[in-house]
Amino acid sequence: MPPLTQLALTLAAGVLLDRLLGEPRRFHPLVGFGALAAWLEKRWNRNEHRIARGALAWTLAVLPWVLAALWLRSLGSAIAIGVDIALLWFALGARSLVEHARAVAVPLQAGDLAEARRRVGWIVSRDTAALSPTQVAAAGTESVLENGNDAIFGTLFWFLVAGGPGALLFRLANTLDAMWGYRTERYLHFGRIAARADDVLGWLPARLTALSYALLGHTRHALHCWRHQGPGWKSPNAGPVMAAGAGALRVQLGGEAPYHGAMTQRPPLGSGSAPDASSLFAAIALVNRTLALWIGLSLLAGAVAWGLAHA
Predict the structure, then answer these.
(1) Torsions phi, psi for 235 (to 5 deg)
(2) Which of 20, 27, 89, 271 counts the highest number of beta carbons within 10 A?
(3) What residues pair up with 268 in beta bridges, in sequence order?
(4) What are the residues facing 259 on neighbouring strands?
(5) Does 139 have pLDDT greater than 90?
(6) Where, if anywhere, are coiled coils annotated (predicted)?
């Protein structure tokens, strides 16, 4: 079987496994990884040489698992296929993202603001206790669009580049960025390498995700928002993704939001109507269409490789 065909089929199998099983309900490996990361940060985040200490902590947290995955893949083709499928299932968060988003959208649509606030607090870092329905919808929609890249398409991209170890590398690096990549006194220097590693690994996948959102939504509007609004966002990868996604949906996102007890003014994203529950459902549908596009293109490439090999 041509390598590209095998890669496409293992990708489809990993996505199917995620769709059927979702993330592990008990003993999730990321919980253990998070505990390891917290232990390393507590031990290594000292006043002196914080950048170097952060780099060493990042290396100790990530590389042993990636190297172990590479070693397992070297034991034989059948083992490599199983490892790739298992690692993609572990690294992919497509079903989980949709479940969390629907858990916000359904009560919001039904008028249960308290439950919608509670559930959106599970997926965003801003203060949610006093959010209005529009603010809840905006927070949820932004999270779906951004995490479409972080939890799905960045993982798929690196899987296509380097198989299961690539997907694992991206997911662990993204997790460390979420834990250490803050511009606060505690993490500004220690977490710098974690933030930069995530920026580098996510740069191309983010732009492919933004392009996919644009192609599958209001294309011209999405490209305009990407070009004019994306560069103003503090994250070099989240900006293009969320700007293109907001433009594709023709919805207004960004702007003022509460963080750590104070209102933070963020650049605007998209334009059009104010977000509501329907915006959340539309964002979920956009992510699902994008996932179908990526799988379809992967399988098409695999079929072409198979045809050329047997021509």
Answers:
(1) -95, 125
(2) 89
(3) 254
(4) 262
(5) yes
(6) none
Domains in the chain: how many in total?
1
CB count, 10 Å around CB of 205? 23
The predicted pLDDT at position 83 comes to 96
Cα–Cα distance list, 104 to 121, 143, 275 (Å): 9, 11, 13
Q: Domain of 288?
A: 3-309
Give the chain's mean pLDDT: 93
Which amino acid appears at position 17 of this protein? L
Rounded distance, CA 166 to CA 158, Å? Answer: 5
Q: Tell me the per-residue pLDDT of 142-196, one tens digit each, with 9 for 90 and over.
A: 999 999 999 999 999 999 999 999 999 999 999 999 999 888 888 889 999 999 9
Contact partners, residue 11, CB within 8 Å, separation at least 6:
88, 156, 159, 160, 295, 298
CA dihedral of residues 79, 201, 15, 120 (deg, nearest 10): 140
- CB count in 10 Å sphere of residue 256: 10
